[in-house]
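Dear colleague,

Thank you for sharing your sequence with our group. We've completed the structure prediction you requested, and as agreed, I am returning the results in plain text so they can be pasted directly into your records. Please verify that the sequence below matches your submission; if there's any discrepancy, let me know and we will rerun it promptly.
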Amino acid sequence: MKITREEVLHVANLARLNLDEQAIELYTKQLGDILAYMDTLNRVNTEGVPPTSHAIFMNNAFREDEVKESIPVDRALANAPLAEDGSFFVPKVIG
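Please find the predicted structure tokens below.
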């Protein structure tokens, strides 16, 4: 599929881009190359190939939940700039 100069200008207008003549030519060629490659990919026989979301097989790296002791309050608040009644104190930021 070939993309025209007018289509590049239309997309640039939608994106509120001001392109000079050199950029228009460059983007027209680059987008045309991308669309030509997509045409090549569309011709590949994918019959019987299951859809994938990743190029390689991936496993989630989740771990089992383990109940552990929490850190003591005084240690959690040790580096806090401000603490009040065993809690972090932050300035009010919303009305």
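Summary note from our side: The beta strands are 83-84, 87-88.

Kind regards,
the structure core
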